[in-house]
Amino acid sequence: MKGKPRTAIVTGAGKRVGAVIASALIADGWTVVAHVHHERDEVPVGAVSAVADLGDLECGRAIFSAADGLPPVRLLINNAARFVRDDFGALSAAELDAHMAVNLRAPILLTEAFARRHDGDDGLIINLLDSKLAAPNPDFLSYTLSKQALAGFTELSARALSSLGIRVNGIAPALMLRSAGQTDENYERVHSRNPLQRGVEPDDVMSAIRYLVSVPTVTGEVLVIDGGQRFSPPARDVQFLED
After folding, report:
1. Is the pLDDT of residue 243 over 70?
2. In angstroms, rounded to a whole number, what is the distance separating the alpha carbons of residues 121 and 21?
3. Residue 222: beta bridge partners?
4. Alpha carbons 177 and 17: distance in angstroms, whole number
5. Mean pLDDT of the chain
């Protein structure tokens, strides 16, 4: 992928980890299409904005149309995710549908759009997963199920698209930033609660992205970035742990 003009598409690029990824790719020389949900949402400096509702069946067309006239799309990062709590005994059918639409169906639609436009050069799709899949717990049930399904799709699409020169991989980080509903105090206590005693940072995800970009023979893999947390998995989501 090096040395040629190329475009990367990053979903959920207006804030949090997505904004870090988009900005870093721009610094690396990529043309970046930064997906956001609303017209008013800002994107990193230098990025091309693509506005789309990931719950919409036309989201793939809307996002990829923003890349018209730009260098070939060589990288798709499915970063955006819905993260709303429901649990066993309090499952919301509406939340299950909403999580599956954003966290699974949208990446599938974007993957299909990527494959339709691909010209045979090295292409890479990266799905942002969650390290809790390596040691699951039942909290945030709909979210967890949607990420498990996306992990399955990561392998299936890697198998299906390899003949086209498209690689598909996943990155599964642990807690990086304070979650919705989590107190600052709880975040500080649990961020580095792992065997290495090192909290995972957005830059760690960017390092993993750079690795996957640089090695054109890796496909169908999931890089777990959790400081070894899966070696002693918590029984609950980390924000519910007490000292």
Report:
1. no
2. 23
3. 170
4. 8
5. 94
Place of tokens 């890089």: 223
Residue 206 token pair: 């960017």
Round to whole Å and give the CA distance between 24 and 149. 28
Strand partners, 170: 127, 222
Which pLDDT score, from 0 to 100, does residue 181 have? Answer: 77
Alpha carbon distance 70, 111 (integer Å): 18
How far is 153 from 77, CA to CA, in rounded Å? 14
Residue type, 203: D
**Residue 27 backbone class (left: φ over 0; alpha: ψ -120 to 50; beta: rest):** alpha
The three-class DSSP label of residue 68 is: coil
Rg, C-alpha atoms of the chain: 17
Task: Give the model's pLDDT for residue 197.
Answer: 95
Highest mean pLDDT (candidates 50-59, 90-99, 224-233) = 50-59
Confidence band of 191 (pLDDT split at 50, 70, 90): very high
Instruction: Let me know: does 83 contact 132? Beta carbons within 8 Å.
Output: no
What lies within 8 Å, CB to CB, of 101 at 6+ separation is 54, 55
Whose tokens are 């002693």? That residue is: 232
Q: At what angle do helices 202-214 and 16-27 cross, to 10 degrees?
A: 50
Kindly give the interhelix angle for 141-161 and 106-117, rounded to the nearest 10 degrees: 20
